[in-house]
Amino acid sequence: MASWQYAVDRFCCQYLQLEQDLDFPSADCLPLDVVQDAIFRRLFALGAVRHGPPVRYQVRTLKELVSRITASIDDWDEHAVSDNLMSALSGLLSTPLPAEAASARQRCYVTYRLSALARDPDEVGGGSAEVPDVTLLESRSLISAGGTTGLRTWEAALHLGQYLCANAAIVSGKRVLELGAGTGYLSILCAKHLSCASAVASDGSDDVVDHLADNLLLNGLRDASRVRPTTLKWGQALVGVDERPGNGGGPVDVVLGADITYDQSVLPALVATLLGLFELYPLVEVYISATQRNEETFEAFLDASRRKGLVVEDIEFPMPTRQRQQAPFYSGRVPIRLCGVSKAGRQP
Fold first, then answer.
1. Which of 83, 95, 135, 281 could form a disulfide with 111 if both were Cys (CB 3.0 to 4.6 A apart)?
2. How many angstroms separate the CA atoms of 276 and 233, rounded?
3. DSSP-assigned letter for residue 42
4. Does one domain contain both 312 and 173?
5. Are 212 and 259 contained in the same domain?
6. How far apart are CA 254 and CA 191, in angstroms?
7. GO cellular component terms (predicted)?
8. pLDDT at 264 > cutoff 80
9. In this structure, are 118 and 77 located in the same domain?
């Protein structure tokens, strides 16, 4: 792949993921007609993106792109800014924009490309590599009006997703339960791309669970036997519940949880739920990913787990720096801890 193709692909993936700090192609690449044409065809041509970013984001990105192209041109007899890009910018600038406050509350499309699952061009009959993705409707504001953080995908889910992509056998053919599913990223990833037998995307917020249906539909997962959204309140008894975790009350093989240990007040209920799952499904495997914003909080989870006979073991899966990341992209400024949880004394 030519260097400009890698740069364009990286930029396009970041754009579709609504990254705020985009890696624009270098000043050496931007004047090239082939580079400008590739960006236009992939991002700004009519119908190029089925589920595009908000108009404000499109305008900001395209203005910055045109500005960088202009600054990179030394010889205007040899190079120019693409007419197609200028026309696209004019069209966006003429589009009425919603108020910023309304934009902040609006859910928007976010597409996460899964470079770890990219297929070689030779496998798909030549051409460019085939890169799977997950598209979600998210609220990009930090906390929604309902007080939940579950309407956007967080770094810990993306990191755990990368681990599963690299170790697909963990979920392939298995029945998966996701705790604190939020946008459903992990459940959708497992069902759409990692061949799990079924997935239950559970969350304690009814508002979050209601929104999951949109994301399942976006990813072609209308069939409830593949991914089933459900409300699951941590700490409540699981035994004897008709709609308990699992497909139709069936067994669960793998439990996943990302950023579910950030609130000390819910840790006793979370640990109680994990204990209940081990009682119901003694052979279940549990994987938890936690962004360590506050080390005291995770230590509180470790203490609560130890007191109840749970063993939490770190899994070695280094997080690449931002410069070394390929899609999806997520911040490397705060460490993410990946752990396996088991019941003390459980026989292998």
1. 135
2. 12
3. I
4. yes
5. yes
6. 13
7. cytoplasm
8. yes
9. no
Among 58-67, 76-85, 148-157, 264-273, the least confident range: 148-157
DSSP state of 338: E
347 compared with 296, residue with greater pLDDT? 296
pTM of the complete model: 0.91
Q: Is 138 helix (H, G, I), strand (E, B) or coil?
A: strand
List of long-range contacts for 294-299, beta carbons under 8 Å, 24+ apart = 294/262, 296/264, 297/261, 297/262, 297/263, 297/264, 298/261, 298/337
- Reduced to 3 states (helix: H, G, I; strand: E, B; else coil), residue 3 is helix
Q: Which one, of 138, 130, 72, lies nearest residue 105 by Cα?
A: 138
What number of CA atoms fall less than 13 Å from residue 307's CA on the CB side? Answer: 10
348 in a structural domain:
no
Q: What is the chain's Cα-based Rg?
A: 22
Q: How many residues does the chain have?
A: 348
| 3-state per-residue secondary structure call for 264-323 | HHHHHHHHHHHHHHHHHCCCCEEEEEEECCCHHHHHHHHHHHHHCCEEEEECCCCCCCHH
pLDDT confidence bin for 197, thresholds 50/70/90:
very high
The pLDDT value recorded for residue 145 is 38
For residue 315, give its domain range: 112-343
210 and 271 inside one domain = yes
CA distance 118 to 121: 9
- Give Cα separations from 282 to 274, 342, 348 (angstroms): 11, 9, 10
pLDDT in tens, 136-183: 999 976 543 344 566 889 999 999 999 999 999 999 999 999 999 999
- Encoding tokens for residue 270? 């979370």
Whole-angstrom distance, CA of residue 296 vs CA of residue 298:
6
